[in-house]
Amino acid sequence: MGILDGRVALITGAGRGIGRAEALYFAAEGAQVVVNDIGVSSDGSGGDTSIAASVAAEIHAAGGSAVANTDSVTDWQGAKRMVDTAIDAFGDLHVVVNNAAISRPRALVNMSEAEFDAVVAVKLKGTFAVSHWAARYWRERYEAGDRADRAIINTSSSAGLNSPYPLNTNYAAANAGVGAMTILHSLELARYGVRVNGISPGARTRLSLDLPAGVDSLTARDRSAPGSYDPWDPIHQAVVVAHLASAACTLTGQMLTVRGSTVAITRNWSVGEHVSKENAGWTVEELGRALGRLTFESPFDTLVYLARVYGVSDREQVQQLINRFLDNDEQSEKAS
Predict the structure, then answer these.
(1) CA–CA separation, 138 vs 193, rounded Å?
(2) Hey, which residues are catalytic here?
(3) Beta-bridge mates of residue 151
(4) Domains of the chain by range and CATH?
(5) CB neighbour list of residue 37: distance below 8 Å, 6 or more residues apart
(6) How far apart, in whole angstroms, are the C-alpha atoms of residue 334 and residue 322?
(7) Which residue intervals of 144-283 are DSSP H helices?
(8) Comparing 48-57, 240-249, 263-272, which segment has the lowest mean pLDDT?
(9) pLDDT band at 221 (very low <50, low <70, confident <90, very high)
(10) What is the pLDDT of residues 27-41, one digit of tens each?
């Protein structure tokens, strides 16, 4: 018996990396899986329809049940077809895992409209589109008297939540939006018995290599012998997502940061220290003095990722690293 027996799951971006690990793990735990992937490169170019089919075949070979789907999450009707694929193949849909993403890192001064739009279309619009069509189906089922547990699990990123990696305006903005939608959709869909949660993963994937330093520069020194514990294996994300997808899970409206076997609650924007004035408005001068008494957190101090990779310890070192990334991007822009 698996924890996902009887569950039908649609997983986007399931051809490689975290999505593939999720698809294989879900199937091993008894889920019937729609493997969605259009087989593009990490920047969204190209396409290989055999990628999704190969994962589905791998699931079949292991005794599981899966079908492949090659619609794009950026296609409004394609997102609907994904949901329809699950219903047509397996008779229902219980779980959506929004995992599809691409990366086109570029500095603000160099990023093109196309580079911004492409990343936002896949990550933000794609998450919205697939969730929309699934939610419409689930509303119909609920109104017909079906009270089955349903779940959406979104994939965000620390780049958009709590570690603002330079050169990732598009990726960070899209993932911050996914985090916001996760909370909002959990409130809206509760009336239909739908839980909505998200993860902020840390794993060795194609997209992680597009970060300024590339996660491999960190994990190379953490890799162990084959078969031993690897904290950056995508399987750790799959286990957490499987829990969130199971009918036994009661969480909703939560974002979990997953780093190996460490799983942490990730808060959304919260109100901290404050200043106030009794029964009167501020003058600019008064407000300036009052704010000067508060402690503000500098974004230079929150780049935990850079500190872990390079061991940087102060703002000047962080700024030097950012300058290096920006210089490399400038050279790339001039060469193109």
Answers:
(1) 9
(2) 171
(3) 95, 195
(4) 8-265 (3.40.50.720)
(5) 12, 13, 14, 15, 16, 19, 51, 52, 55, 68, 70, 100
(6) 18
(7) 158-161, 169-189, 216-219, 235-245
(8) 263-272
(9) very low
(10) 999 999 999 999 998
